[in-house]
Amino acid sequence: MGDHVPPSPGRPGRALSTLGGQAQPETEPEPEFESELEPEPAKRSWAGSWPDLFVRRIARLLVSLWLLITASFLLIHLIPGDPVRASMGPATPQETIDARRAALGLDDPLILQYFSYLRKTLTGDFGVSIASGLPVSDIVAVRLPATLELAFIGFAVTMAIAVPLGMVVAVMTRGGRRPAAQVAFASTTILLGSVPGFLLAVILVYFFAVQWHILPVAGHQTAASYVLPVTALALGTAASMARIVRAETMSVLGDGFIRTARSKRL
User: How many whole angstroms separate alpha carbon 82 and alpha carbon 98?
Assistant: First the structure.
């Protein structure tokens, strides 16, 4: 075996070995350049995920409906008092009350009442009103169009007030300008947003309908009949939404592209 010679300073990483009295370079094995790249992950198939998402949402909806129906059934039976006696009056004979309870199925075991309640609710049979004696489905069908109309008008008024108001206040108070306007806007919207809708409705009816006789108390024959209920529905929601719109507008106004556009007078 030959003597090992230290590596040459001019060419690092190579050593010389003597074999038979002659110095020969000791070659190193060529590095193997293997691809160490990780395989590209498979692309997510949206075609397969949308049905799963739809099924999960439907399942959550059904569970939520079942919980709501069960909670309403339990609340009816946990509230103290007899609804039959309350509807027929305290002077009604006990025999009449017992017959009415038997006709309504209130004498059955609680589990049977629950399944009967669940079956009728899912099939659209809401029974008969104890107070009026009319089918509940007919009562709901009569009042549903006016309710939907009022909800749609209230939503439109809410958006018409909240979006422009929030954007205008954001532009006026950006950068700490007009602190008085900012304080007034925050105080007013917090106050209106914290008042319950039913309390606001009572206040509006008391002043504008009872005391000042400016607007009607109820009905939907004229446009004036919508003023009080729409105001009670939209005012608190518009106040809360206006604060959200202002915060989002302030965030957008502070972005870099807005500052660049403003510097270029665009």
Answer: 11
